[in-house]
Amino acid sequence: MKKRNTLLMFALVALTVSLLTAPVAAAKDKKVEKPVYKFKTVLEVKRTPVKDQYHTGTCWCFATVAFLEAELLRLDRGEFDLSEMFVVRHTYPKKALNYVQMHGNAVHQQGGQAHDVIEQVREFGIVPEEVYSGMNIGEKRHNHGEMAAMLQGVTEAVLKRKGTRLTPRWLQAYEAILDSYLGKVPAEFNWQGRTCTPKTFASDVLGLPLDDYIELTSYDQHPFYRQCRLEIPDNWTYDRNYYNLPIDELESAVERALTDGYSVVWDGDVSEKDFSTRETGYALVPEKDWEDKTTAEREKKPTAPIEEKEITQAMRSKTLGDFSTTDDHLMHIVGLAQDQTGARFFLIKNSGGTDRKYDGYVYMSRPYFRLKTTALMVNKNSLKPELRTKLGMKP
Q: Which range has the worst mean pLDDT, 59-73, 299-313, 353-367?
C-alpha cells in the first residue's frame, strides 16, 4: 500500500511538472515573428515590365525609356518594348566629342540624364528592342565593363598625343568599338509590314510629344520658378533647362501626375544604407541621425515601421553641397503606396531585373524622396495650369 502511494505521488508530481512546462516548450517551438514593413499599393499607372540594365551605367536610359513606354500606354498607342541601347549608341559619340574638345575637363562615363534620351530620340529616332538589342557579343545580359574601358582608352590616348593635330580618325575608331560591342544601328527595318527608319518609327508609329517632357529640380541656390543648371556630374551637357521648384511643390507635382495617370522619371541618391533593392526593397531616412547610431545599429536595417525625419529645403541644399547627397541612379515612379501605419511611399520601378525584393520594385518613403531627389522628368501637362503659368510655359 505504501509503495502504491509513493508511485501515485510521483505520477502526480510528473503530471504537474508537465502541465507547468508545456507552455514554455510550446513557446520555444513557435517562432516569434518579427514586425516587418507591409505595403499596400494605393494607386498605380500603366507601365511596361521591369527590365535589367545589368552591368552597365545606363539607368538614365532605362528609366527614361520606361517613362516613354508608359506614355505610349497612357496615350493608348499600344505596348512597346523600345531599345535602350539604340539611344546609348548615339549618346556615346557626343559625350566623347565633348570630353575631347574640353581637353578632358568634362565627364566621359556611362551615366547621363533623362534629357539625353529625349535629345537622341528627337535627332535619331528610336527602334524596337527586337530590332536593336545592343548585345552583339553573345551575352544574355548587358555588360559594358570592357566596352567602357576601351572607349575611355581611346579618348585618353587622343588627349595624350604630342606635337600633332587632332584628326577625325579617332572618332571613327571610337565608333568602331561601339559597333563591335553593340552592333551597327539599322538604317531601316520592317515593322508590322511597313518599312521604317528609326526617325519615321519615332514620328509616324510612336508619335510621342517630346516637347512636353520637362525636367524639375529643387535647390535654393537658384531662384525658384525659373530654369537653372543642375550642378551634377551626369549633366554633362550643362543643360540649363531644369525648372526649379520648392520641395513641397515638387512633391505635390509628382502626386498630382500619378493621380492623373502620368508616370515620372526619378533621379537621385541611392548610396544610403537605408536604401535597398535586394534585402528590404525600401528607402528610408530614419529620425535618428546616422552619426548618433552605435556600430551595432549601423549594421542593421529597419524591419518594422520607424519614425523618419521631416525634410526641409535647407537640408536638401546642405546635403547636395557637402556631397552626402550624390547623383547615382535614375528610376521610374509608377504609383503611390502606404505602410501599415498609413505613412506614404512612392512605388518605383527599378531597372535591375526581377530577381530582387518586390520583383524589382522599390518603396520610397516621402522623407527619402524629399531629401534625396536631385531631378525629375514629367509631362508638363501633368502640372497644375497655374504652376505652368508661373513657370512661364506656353499653353
A: 299-313
DSSP string across 145-188: HHHHHHHHHHHHHHHT--SS---THHHHHHHHHHHHHH-PPPS-
Long-range pairs, 201-210, Cβ under 8 A, ≥24 = 201/125, 201/126, 201/127, 201/128, 202/121, 202/125, 202/126, 203/125, 206/68, 206/72, 206/77, 206/80, 206/126, 207/77, 208/68, 208/71, 208/72, 208/121, 209/379, 210/118, 210/121, 210/122
Cα–Cα distance measured from residue 343 to residue 345, given in angstroms and rounded to the nearest whole number: 7
Count of domains in the chain?
A: 1
Confidence of residue 353 (pLDDT cuts 50, 70, 90): very high
Checking phi first, is residue 186 left (phi over 0); if not, alpha (psi -120 to 50) or beta? beta
User: Running DSSP on this structure, what letter comes out for residue 203?
Assistant: I
Contacts 24+ apart (CB under 8 A), 232-236: 232/327, 232/374, 232/375, 233/107, 233/109, 233/111, 233/327, 234/60, 234/107, 234/109, 234/111, 234/112, 234/113, 234/327, 235/113, 236/95, 236/98, 236/106, 236/107, 236/108, 236/112, 236/113
What does the mean pLDDT of the chain come to?
A: 91
Please state the pTM of the whole predicted model: 0.89
109 falls within a domain: yes
Crossing angle of helices 145-159 and 169-182, in 10° steps, is 180
Question: Would 12 be classed as within a structural domain?
Answer: no
Instruction: Identify the domain containing residue 361 by its residue range.
Output: 40-390
> Quick one: pLDDT at residue 330?
98
End-to-end CA distance of the chain: 106
Residue 3 lies in a domain: no
Tell me, rounded to whole angstroms, the distance of Cα 94 from its chain centroid. Answer: 23
Determine, yes or no, domain membership for 129: yes
CATH number (domain holding residue 73) = 3.90.70.10
Looking at this protein, which amino acid is placed at residue 164? T
Give the 3-state secondary structure of residue 331: strand
Between vectors from CA 69 to CA 331 and to CA 55, what angle results, nearest 5°? 45
pLDDT at 85 over 80: yes
